[in-house]
Amino acid sequence: MEKKQRLVWLGFVLCMLILIWRCFYSVNYADEPYCISSVWRFYKGDALLAQDWFPAQQLIAWIFSPLYWLFRVFSGSNDGIMLVFRLTYVAFQGVVSVFVYYRLKKYQYFRIPAVMLYLLSTQNNMLTLNYNTLGIGCILLILTILITEEKFAPPTLIGVGVLTAVMVLSQPYAILMFLLWGAAVIVAVPFKKKYQLHPLLKFRTFFFVGIGAFVVLVAFVTVVLMRADITEVLNGFQYLMSDPEHQMDLHYKVTKYFERFYRYYQYQIIVAGVCLVVGFLKNHRVVQYMKVMSFLLAIMAAIHTLISHGWLSDYVPIDFICVPMMFLGISIWALGKKKNILLFFGWMIPALIYTFCVQLTTNTGILAVSSACIVASAGGVLMIGETFKESKEELSKSVSQMILFMVIAVLLLQGALLLYHRICYTWWSSPVSECTEQLESGPAKGIYTSPEDAKWYYDTLEAVDSLQAETDEPILFLDLAPWLYLYTDAPVAAYSMWTIGEDNFLEEYYECYPEKEPAVVCWMGIENPEEAVAMQYFLENGYEFTEIDGGIALRKNK
Q1: What is the bridge-based pairing of β-strands 437-438 and 448-449?
Q2: In this model, does residue 119 exceed pLDDT 60?
Q3: Contact 437/448 with Cβ under 8 angstroms?
Q4: Of 458, 323, 315, nearest in space to 381 by CA
Q5: pLDDT at 242 over 80
Q6: Distance CA 159, CA 170 (A)
Q7: Which residue pairs, CB below 8 angstroms and at least 24 apart, start in 494-501?
Q8: pLDDT tens, 77-104?
């Protein structure tokens, strides 16, 4: 056992070294620095919900603010902040993985692939802390603690409540999970005298978890109201809920969730449905034959999904290959004679509900949903392990070995593909193989990128420097450039660091916060002033138009 444990730890250390190494390559200038810019904006003194009218990221800005504050204490600027957030995320994944590994001790060897699937995955292969990566880590910790807890002591449950609140701040619609849990506890009340209820269905458990969540809620509300009064918050909230990029029709969100799941995973969904039917039929020789065929079909469907999305397709493969073990776990669980109800209803169902909550929050649809399925896939591995353990005595040695061999083959294929894409796949950035030049200044300092990308990066910084903007005067970037806000380190003159589109609230924003009116307005990557968003508004308000390398700028007359 000691030798095997050493091998496990050796594998873990090697994976961590690879993930740390990968942090130094390829730069994403949009999604990745957006979360960091939200944290920086909070650090600069802006009020959550009141002065930021974009729904994503800002609720967790105050959670990451201690990390950012510590960084600024030692650096004094934002140079290298993207690399620091990357390394911190890898450390976060490592700590979560170690904790989950120890808590899942009773699942023996199957806990290893369950943990490794999480360790090797991340949405769009964006190697940074954000609301998606933090939310997935929290839901994995919550389910692990609740499934393995024996005493359900108040301190532990309060800790779960804290994690639940952080999860909800990361994915606001995840509050549905907490509400559904409360509903299940209420429904179980009439049965507590007749049946021995599981601690998860007892009011005491739910109550202490609620206390932990309430503590975080009070802290969050206090932080918000320390910088803005309730009128400002409500005013900002109405614009926040009007964001067209995230706030889509509920019917559209729900239908697309099921439609896209079926479009990308139809074979696994069909086979899982067959397994659920066959697995609950009365025991018969014909049924045994059907179970064997269903198992083989489930294995083939999982391999098909992994190869088609992880090997043949180049459409964000690292997200899609997070899913197969989820459906395979459900299929094998259904075919087993003894079914672990706790794992199904205590892990798989909540993990699936979480993916639905992600769908309600995200604007990237099936990509974010698929990456969130990694928690359900980890649960699928545990379900397979429990089913195999319970059915092993009824199977011959050769059949048992064959089943184990096929499952391990799928796990190795999924793990290999995840590791490959974690190293090689890039999201809106240069391929790793072309990243030969290390950036020496700015938010992306320390990261290697392609020579072409590095030239564009430095040219953009020089163009921004040519504006000679004061660091204490608000600046507005009209294009998708949150990293430029980090570079200038000047107050934000926008209700969002994301793209300011044609249908914007700039005029309303400056009416609410006249001190936010920009001293300089800049749009990089555009040559025709007529194409600039809100150009007419700024010209009418006395701004002077100037050209800069790679873009345009407007300066307010003093």
Answers
A1: antiparallel
A2: yes
A3: yes
A4: 323
A5: no
A6: 17
A7: 495/51, 495/52, 495/53, 495/54, 495/239, 496/52, 496/53, 496/54, 497/34, 497/37, 497/38, 497/41, 497/54, 498/34, 498/54, 498/56, 498/245, 500/476, 500/533, 500/534, 501/533
A8: 999 999 999 999 999 999 999 999 999 9
pLDDT at residue 244 above 70? no
pTM over 0.90: yes
DSSP of 111-122: HHHHHHHHHT--
Quickly count: other Cβ atoms within 10 Å of residue 476's Cβ: 22
Nearest to 442 by CA among 456, 428, 430: 456
The pLDDT, as a whole number, for residue 58 is: 83
| CB 325, CB 305: distance < 8 Å | no
The SS3 assignment for 544 reads strand
With a CB cutoff of 8 Å and minimum separation 6, the contacts of 224 are 47, 48, 49, 50, 233
Phi/psi at 276 (nearest 5 deg)? -65, -35
- Span 393-429, pLDDT tens digits: 777 788 888 999 999 999 999 999 999 999 999 988 9
| Residue predicted with more confidence, 385 or 550 | 385
Q: Is the dihedral angle over the CA atoms 75, 521, 458, 88 positive or is it negative?
A: positive
Helix (H), strand (E) counts: the chain: 23, 6
Q: Using the structure block, give the residue that is written with the tokens 């010209």.
A: 539
Residue 346 and residue 146 in contact, taking contact as beta carbons nearer than 8 Å: yes
Residue of 100, 143, 142 lying closest to 118 (CA atoms):
100
d(Cα 489, Cα 499) in Å, to the nearest integer? 18
Quick one: tokens of 173?
A: 């619609």
